Amino acid sequence: MKKTVILFVAALLAAITLSINGVLGADFGPLVGRWQRADGGYVIEVRRIHADGRIEAGYYNPRPINVGRAQASVSGEKTMIELELRDRGYPGSTYTLIYLTDKDVLRGIYYHAPSKQSLGVFFVRMK
User: Fold this and answer.
1) Global pTM?
2) Which domains does the chain have, with CATH numbers?
């Protein structure tokens, strides 16, 4: 009985955490694919999105750049991607992007940590 209660509480806490993080029941399928930044050859490859919102992703410029962390979430009606780069020339640089369903694009901010500069960006789906 005690073990059943502990497992129930653990499952409940996990469900609450997923709901709070804005991923429970979210449809992240449209985010999967290759996305090219409109102002250059920068490419985000979203390979897979786990139920907890973790993204298996690649980033290329045009060579591979290490992705330290990638996460999908939902805030209100907005589906978002956050990507943190961890590589030479990019340590701590981030993308915070919103998926625009009607246009099938990712739009948001790129923060280049070494220069402390932010840039408005958008990515289009590669066919």
Assistant:
1) 0.79
2) 2-125 (2.40.128.30)
